[in-house]
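Table S2 (text version). Query chain:
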Amino acid sequence: MRILLVDDEVELVSALAERLELRGIEVAWAGSGKDALALAASQDFDLAVLDVKMPGMGGLALKERLAEKHPGLKFIFLTAYGSEQDFNCVASDIGAQFYLVKPVAIEELIAAIKTTLEEDGQGDE
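Corresponding structure-token output:
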């Protein structure tokens, strides 16, 4: 499985990427929507973990752009704002199963990744 992590908090996203890689998950990360689009243009990913609020292009806009070019891509959203209950009201409309509030525990993120990919039969890859 290949994961794309996108968050404008570079220290957070690089630390999450490192911790996921230590657990055998292949990860690429970007600090902006623009950089994420460039990565996705040159590499294939099974799932994208996107920060909802980022300068320039936020996670919801980025999800729409990524989904256009990569229809099978799955999504998980991260945010430091709002509540999970708020997000659940719109999650099905935007095609996201998980909305995790930062700071996210690595075990919680891994569980969300596995659950999301297992639904599509990719969790064992």
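Notes on Table S2: The mean pLDDT is 87. The radius of gyration is 13 Å.
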